[in-house]
Amino acid sequence: MPMKRLSFLWHFLCPAMLLLCIGLFAAPARGSGDKVLRVSIGMTDIKTLDPGLVTTTQDMFLADMLFSGLLRFKPGDVSALEPDLAESYTLSPDGMLLSFKLRKGVMSHPFRGYPKGVEITSDDVLFTIAKNADPKKSTTAATFQNFVASAPDPYTVEIRLRQRVPTPERAFANFRTGCIIPRKAYEAFGERRFKTRPVGTGPFMLSDYQPGQKIVLAANTAYFRGKPKLDRVEVLFMPEINSREFALSSGAVDIIDGSKEQLWVDKMKKAKGVVVDVFGPGELAFFNFNVAKAPISDLRVRQALSLATDIDSLRLFKGKDIAEEICGIVAPVMPGGLTCEDAREAGVGHAYDPERAKALLKEAGFPDGFDMTIVSSERAPFRQILENVQAQWKKIGVNMQIDVVDHSTFHTRIRQNTSPVVYYISQRPDANEWLTQFFHSDAIVVKGKAPITNFSNCDTLDGLIEQARVEVDPAKQQSLWKEAQVRILKDLYALPLYLQLQVWAHSDRVDYGFPLKSSYTTAPNITELTAKK
């Protein structure tokens, strides 16, 4: 048998055999009192579980169970902040001083040399803040370089701001770099090993990691909010949606990462014993045009690609329950968000006009179009939209080759500043983070002072972004944020497509422990209250 045929059969049979084993040996009958939650997620493996470096869905999902912040977004509802490792906090009237009072007696997960863990004190908070200010150890170094932290005593942390920013307390909530790392655990394992041997204070702790297969988290029985109702959580890596869907319908797993397609949502809503979760906040799906790469560096080429993109058809393809209209970089529900009416009034509303696009390409010196290659994640929300746009751009002579790689590799490749266009799906908690991380020169990938997600190589908005950060009048601040977005759309550093809601599905045996309205991890929160019926 030819090698390609064998490879295909192995690719098909391996997940099937895995599911069979799970179904036969790991899925107890309904009502058996099973306290093991099994989740299948559309990834091939983790990238890192160091919360200061996480960027992918599976990493954020796992880190959310492993770590705690000084504050936390209320499970299932990101509109509310509540104390977490801190029992209280205050923000000075001028917005320049944050003070946190820590809970006493909160212990980390056990680790080598510390069978009962270590108590979390202000020293761990100072360590985490210093780590987060290092661009090599954090995805939000620019944010944390603004903080000067001190500790009057083991249970008090004071943080002075070099520059005023909106809602600085949100940086210390339990999302990515807001998670507190125990200093002694990080130093015991070292920077490299901590990525796969994380030690936190969350309701679950690492029990087993089998690369490319699964991660097992055991209940943290000493969790400061109370012993979890689950004994453990098993997260299985299943890149193919058909495998995940079969695993859920067969009872082999309890929760799956769903397909962000209307047909899939409608189908799963009819499935017996299955509950579909469609929740926010929406992630912005958008193109980043790399102005440092020819021919994208020519504004006329960027305008042509924009005019050749039929956004309405993309939203229709995604579906009414999943894709919401957006015309700016910051969603209108956020302070400083740009509405479609705002965009039209500023003359930067989107239009679909392939004939005008062809004329612009000819004017730019590409009467027959051009070829380019971009990298895409293997995940359906990335690959399917790019295949759709590939056909749209083909009509004006632009031949876009799509290099599909696993999701972790995708995140690595797009940060190497080699792709002329980056299709990205992301969310940020406020306008300042959106503009700072995607359009400030410090954030330019590879060459920025704190490189993170400025894939467009935008370097003309620093003054406006910095002015908005320190503006004390909320109305003026929001006006500056809107002005920055108008500039982004006028110069076409980016093209927003739609807001993509999250789609998951779970067995009706699962009780999250709270209503699921929104989650910054782009996945359901699994907490000490989550249980199986």
What would your notes on this structure say?
The chain has 16 helices and 19 strands. The chain has helices at residues 3-25, 57-66, 122-132, 141-144, 183-194, 241-249, 262-269, 299-307, 311-318, 340-345, 354-363, 380-394, 407-414, 431-439, 462-470, 474-491; strands spanning 36-41, 71-73, 81-83, 86-91, 97-102, 147-153, 156-161, 204-210, 214-219, 232-237, 255-257, 274-289, 323-324, 370-377, 398-405, 421-426, 494-507, 510-511, 531-532. The strands form 5 sheets. Strands 1, 8, 9, 10, 11, 12, 13, 16 and 17 form a 9-stranded mixed sheet that branches. A 4-stranded antiparallel sheet has the order 4-5-7-6, with helices on one face. A two-stranded antiparallel sheet has the order 2-3. It is globular, with a radius of gyration of 23 Å.
How many whole angstroms does the radius of gyration measure?
A: 23 Å
For the termini, the CA-CA separation is: 48 Å
Report helical residue fraction. Answer: 25-40%
Structural class: alpha+beta
Largest sheet: 9 strands, mixed
The fraction of residues in strands falls at 15-25%
Count of distinct strands: 19
Rounded mean pLDDT is 91
How do you describe this structure in short?
The chain has 533 residues and is of the alpha+beta class. It is 32% helix and 22% strand. Strand 2 and strand 3 form a beta hairpin.
Using brief descriptors, characterize the structure shown.
single chain; 533 residues; alpha+beta; 9-stranded mixed β-sheet; 4-stranded antiparallel β-sheet; 16 helices; 22% strand; globular
